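#lab-general

N.A. 3:47 PM
ok so I finally got the sequence cleaned up, no stray characters, all 121 residues accounted for. can someone with queue access submit it? mine expired

B.Y. 3:52 PM
send it over

N.A. 3:53 PM
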Amino acid sequence: QLVESGGGSVRTGGSLTLSCTDSADIYNSLCLAWFRQAPGKEREGVAAIYNDGGGSTYYIDSVKGRFTISQDNAKNTVYLQMNSLKPEDTAMYYCASSSQYLGYYSQYVDYWGQGTQVTVS
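B.Y. 4:20 PM
back already:
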């Protein structure tokens, strides 16, 4: 029900925008988040946006100032704009929804997308 798109291969310093589209039921979740998982590493929450009236956001330190999460309510889509990409950003990126404010932790995720690969070289 969560479908990601927009992954690909880019050079260091390049940009990509990931999109995640879903049905309205899940899109109305409190927290919409992006996770990533690199080979041999645990899945980590990268960014989250909250449907709490304030549109507050969360970012892990390693992407602050480079990544921006946003949503388009009319299109039921959440985006992750990624700029100044680094090789260490290489991972499978997943969209997720949660009813919890801590929805950027895997154990609080209710629904996962299938993932989209991002490779930076």
